[in-house]
Amino acid sequence: MSRPDTRAEEVQVTEPGEGGRGSRLLNLIERAGNALPHPFWLFWILGGVVACVSWALNASGLQVRDPASGDMVGVNSALSANAVRDLISGAQESFVNFGPLGVMLTVMLGVAVAERSGLFEALARRMLSGVSPRTVVLGVALGGVLGKFISESAYVVLIPLGAVAFRAVGRSPMLGMIVAFVSINAAGDANPLIAPGDALYASVATEAAHLVDKDVVVRATDNMYFTTVSAFVLAGTIALVVDKFLTKREHHLTPDADLEAAAAQQVVVSEVDNATEVRALKLTGLAALGYAGLIVLAMVPTSSPLRGEGGAIVESTFMNSIAIFLTVFFLLIGAVYGRLTGRISGSAAIPGFMADGVRSIAPLLVLFFAVSQFLALFKWTNIATVVAVEGADFLKQLGAPTLVLFTLLIAAIATMNLAITSGSALWTLVAPALVPMLMLIGTNPATTMALYRIADSCTNSITPMSPTFMLCVGYLQTLNRKAGIGTLVSFTLPIAMSMLLVWVLLFFAWYLLGIPLGPGAPVR
After folding, report:
1. Which of 95, 314, 398, 496, by CA, is between 20 and 30 Å from 468?
2. What is the distance between the alpha carbons of residues 159 and 180, in angstroms, rounded to a whole number?
3. CA distance between the termini of the chain
4. Of residues 376, 361, 324, 321, the one with CA closest to residue 95
5. Which chain regions cross the lipid bilayer (predicted)?
6. Whole-angstrom distance, CA of residue 333 vs CA of residue 27
7. Residue 429 Cα to chain centre, angstroms
8. What is the per-residue pLDDT across 10-50, written as a single tens digit (0 to 9) for each?
């Protein structure tokens, strides 16, 4: 099988000795970050720090009023008999119920079949055969932004696919992973599609708004116009930063030769002639359309078990269990393609591919154990609640002009997000204070929700506290054993900060022009 023309002359990759002051700073950040302990040990160390901080805050008697329940809550000391008892007895449950763990394992069962059948490689090669190495960045970025619709599953599906896409045009597959990751992680809240998270944000905002006005209803579509435009603006920002700046550092993302050879071997297991491949891709596409059509037909009746209560579609069995449907989808198309090309000789090969997929992510399972225990400790101490409430109260007491207040609000939430990386958890904590506060100065709850999206998204891609950040580190280490936290931060930091600036400026222009954020949702 002939390989695609890499057109390497279209990308000028700077050699290690080149680069300006900014590049040298990022090199320093990379070295400092990679000097940190292995992420597995880092989370245990951070757990010790949190335990000591919780003891000090508990001893100080600090308490805040939880806006959700109205109760006074303080920080629980992790250096107590109750803490040791609860955390040890709940360790297994914390690990098993760790959100990304179940999604990753489930979706990987299907993705492994599609990947090892050669489907991903064939699709990427044919789709990108006429695409320049520069254009591929925008393509992967758009895919990542739109891919957040499938929630946490997007990371498992699109990060490896980003590697395949970049490899197909002769660029570093590690950079492809990073572009896919930052697009999902930092720009995912700009998705133009209505996802389950939108319904959650809207319901929390509605409850918070009722503290001021019982008649206010915030809908999942209230940010639709703004997020649709934002999706394309942010994808373009990612492509611009990567092409104009990070390409100069692409030499830092050279895979280990043996790992790269193994990765390439996984998706190119046999030669397939062009006619057979074209026929297989067409029939696989028909199978994918048939699968989608069956789901649509199954959801037509309002009483369908795939719908939610009262016939709801956004909050439904289908949307809440999207990982299962994705697993079946990738299993189906991988099996069809592999059977037609001869890469799957019989049904017995499919479980073998699935097992290979699980084995390939074994290092991530080990890392997730440490991450899950740290997050359980952090949640048990109530430090997250105290940080969120104190930060919201600080903003409330400033009495600053609207745009200044918006800027401070974004900065404060973006900083909180470095530690509390769950978007839904942080929104649940701060919305009951922020939504009523801003309503009293004339701000629509939909506007507060849009501000939160901006603040919550960008810094996710630069904090090791995020499970998906560590997931991406794990993926990078499948191609380069020395890749670490510093490697990822040194590439995501310029993108994240550029996106944050561009998104804030876009919102301010939107606000000043008075453009509605969504159907029936004025910006002010």
Report:
1. 314
2. 5
3. 58
4. 376
5. 40-57, 95-114, 135-166, 224-242, 283-302, 322-340, 361-378, 398-418, 425-442, 462-479, 491-513
6. 42
7. 20
8. 444 444 444 455 556 555 655 665 566 776 887 788 889 88
User: Residue 74 forms beta bridges with which residues?
Assistant: 63
Cβ-proximal residues to 508 (8 Å cutoff; 6+ apart), any chain: 403, 406
Residues 34, 486: Cα–Cα separation, whole Å: 5
Of all helices (H) and strands (E), which one includes residue 332? helix 322-341
Residue 311 confidence (pLDDT) above 90 = no
Calpha distance 254→243 (Å, rounded): 17
Residue 115 gets which letter from DSSP? Answer: H
- The amino acid occupying position 166 is F
Give the pLDDT confidence of 171-227 residue by residue, as tens digits. Answer: 888 888 898 888 887 766 777 766 656 766 787 788 778 766 777 878 777 888 898
Phi, psi of 272 (to 5 degrees): -130, 130
pLDDT at 399: 67
Query: In Å, how far from its chain's centre is CA 178?
Result: 11
Give, as one character, the DSSP assignment of residue 310: G
Residue in 99, 186, 229 with CA at minimum distance from that of residue 453: 186
Q: Please report how the helices 349-360 and 99-116 are oriented relative to each other, as an axis angle in degrees rounded to 10.
A: 130
Of residues 274, 289, 277, 268, the one with CA closest to residue 341: 277
Q: Are 164 and 270 in contact (CB under 8 A)?
A: no
Please tell me the predicted confidence (pLDDT) of residue 243.
86
Taking the C-alpha atoms of residue 492 and residue 459, their distance in angstroms, rounded to an integer, is 9
Q: 521 - beta bridge partners?
A: 518
Tokens matching residue 72: 């006074």
**Which one-letter amino acid corresponds to residue 318?**
F
* Residue 36: DSSP 8-state: S
- Asked whether the whole model's pTM tops 0.90, one would answer no
Q: Do residues 131 and 169 make contact, with C-beta atoms less than 8 angstroms apart?
A: yes
Inter-residue contact 155 to 199 (CB < 8 Å):
no
| Residues whose CB falls within 8 Å of the CB of residue 248, separated by 6 or more in sequence, listed in order | 13, 14, 18, 19, 23
Q: Which residues pair with 65 in a beta bridge?
A: 72
- β-bridge pairing 63-65 and 72-74: antiparallel
The total of other beta-carbon atoms located within 10 Å of residue 479's CB is 21
Indicate the pLDDT class of residue 165, thresholds 50, 70 and 90.
confident
Q: Helical H runs in 342-422?
A: 349-360, 362-381, 383-398, 402-416
The C-alpha R_g of the chain, in whole angstroms, comes to 24
- Tokens coding 212: 């001021």
**CB-based contacts of 287-293 (< 8 A; 24+ apart in sequence):** 287/332, 287/333, 287/336, 288/329, 288/332, 288/333, 291/328, 291/329, 291/332, 291/333
Mean pLDDT of 389-403: 69
Vertex 378, ends 366 and 319: CA angle to 5°? Answer: 70
Max CA pair span of the chain: 73
Q: What does each C-alpha distance from 125 to 161, 164, 323, 441 come to in angstroms? A: 11, 8, 26, 54
